[in-house]
Structure formats: C-alpha cells, structure tokens
Amino acid sequence: MPRSIKVRVTICFLAFAILPFFSGKAHAQSTSGSATTSWGNYGWQVDQAPVTTTFTSIAGFHTPPGLVQIGVNLSHATTVHEVHGNISLATWAGGSCGNGSIIAQVLDQNLNAIAAMKLQVFGPGTTNVPITGTFTTPLQVTSLFLQYFVDLCGAQTVSVSLVMS
Question: Which one of 13, 64, 126, 148 has the minimum C-beta count within 10 Å?
C-alpha cells in the first residue's frame, strides 16, 4: 500500500475514533439498586450526566422498621449546588392501622442532608412535597444514603425524585 494511502487511512481511522468525544452528545452514567427485606422493599436509580444528577427511589413498608439506612452508589463524584424535586408518601387501605408516618432523608457520604422531609398521612391517601434548595457551600458528593424513620403501622410507600446540579 502506498504511503499516502496509509496516511489517509490512519487519519480517517483516528477521525472516526475520536468523533464521539466531539459530537456534543453527553451520555448519562447510571447506577441502581434494589432489595426485598423483612420490612418491605426498595429500589433506587442515579443517572449522572455532565451537568445534572437525577436520583429516584421508591420504598414500600409493610411493617414499621424504625430507622433504615440504604447505601446508594454513584458512578463518579459530583458537586451539588442546588436540588429540586419531590418527596411523596402514600398510605394504603388495610394493614393494621392504615396510617403512614415517615422521615425521609437523602444524605451525602458525610451524612449532610441534601433533602429531608417528615411526612404523615392519616388513613388511605397521599401527600407530595416539593423540594427546592441551594447550597451556599457546594457539596462534594461521592455517595448517597437514603435514610428512613418509619414509626406508624400500616402499608406505606415513599417516593423520592430529585435533580441535583
């Protein structure tokens, strides 16, 4: 193969090899986890894009376990300047009392609160509370914890949906 053709082939190969890095499309990296436990079940997912980190979780409780802490892995460290989203609680008919009461927190690796809420629902129903916050000193976050304190009987489900940037 003549030298000029080899050079052109090499240039074309390199151009196609590095093209994805300059295409302007950034892809989110995701981590997730779930489990079934003696008190209920939970699932969470973190999507980390270059500018935002989206965190969603759901946990269902059929017995009040007291304090529960669930570790959440991140694909890479992130800096949190502000947070927006919702925390919701739903209680279901049946069970031993049909009421719900929970303290739900999203914490960083140093147990700094990123979002926290005390929610109560008496009888079957739902409540949804918006979360908006700005940190004067940004948090350097390498991992998260979901922490719940459930103190009332009754089947209940807590949902968290946050966007952090």
Answer: 13
